[in-house]
Amino acid sequence: MVHEHNHEEEERYITLINDEGDEELFEILLTFDSEEFEKSYVLFYPVGASDEEEGDVHAYAYIPTEDGGFGELMPIESDEEWDMVEEVFNTFLEDEEE
């Protein structure tokens, strides 16, 4: 999956190009770093979708570029990484509800 990043949009949005070559705009929900896996992670959902809707949130690992961009998005492949990402996401949701 290819992505483009627009710094003028204050790091809140990311554009992905899907397999058909169409651009899709996503709103960034959360970014965080994991010392355990030595990666950074980004969670985002399609613009216009409610963040309450299950299944619409996408998660990828990335290695930040020198200018603070996302670099290449990499799929999360291990169950251990998914468990950690889900735990961070659930904590984020709990904090948002307070």
Could you explain the architecture of this structure?
This protein has 98 residues and is α+β, with helices and mostly antiparallel strands. The protein contains one helix and six strands, in the order ββββββα. A six-stranded antiparallel beta sheet has the order 1-2-3-4-5-6. The N terminus is likely disordered.
Key descriptive features of the protein:
single chain, alpha+beta, 6 strands, 19% helix, globular
Compose a concise summary of this entry.
The protein has one helix at residues 79-97; strands at 2-4, 13-17, 23-34, 39-46, 58-62, 73-74. It is α+β, with helices and mostly antiparallel strands.
Compute the separation of the termini in Å: 35 Å
Strand order of the largest sheet: 1-2-3-4-5-6
Class per helix and strand makeup: alpha+beta
Rounded to an integer, what's the Rg over CA atoms? 13 Å
Tell the overall outline.
globular
User: For the report, how would you describe the main beta sheet?
Assistant: 6 strands, antiparallel
How do the SSEs run, as a string of H and E? EEEEEEH
Q: Quaternary status of these chains?
A: single chain
- Range of strand content: 35-45%
Helix content: 10-25%
Low-confidence stretches: 1-9
Topology of helices and strands:
Blueprint lengths: L1 E3 L8 E5 L5 E12 L4 E8 L11 E5 L10 E2 L4 H19 L1
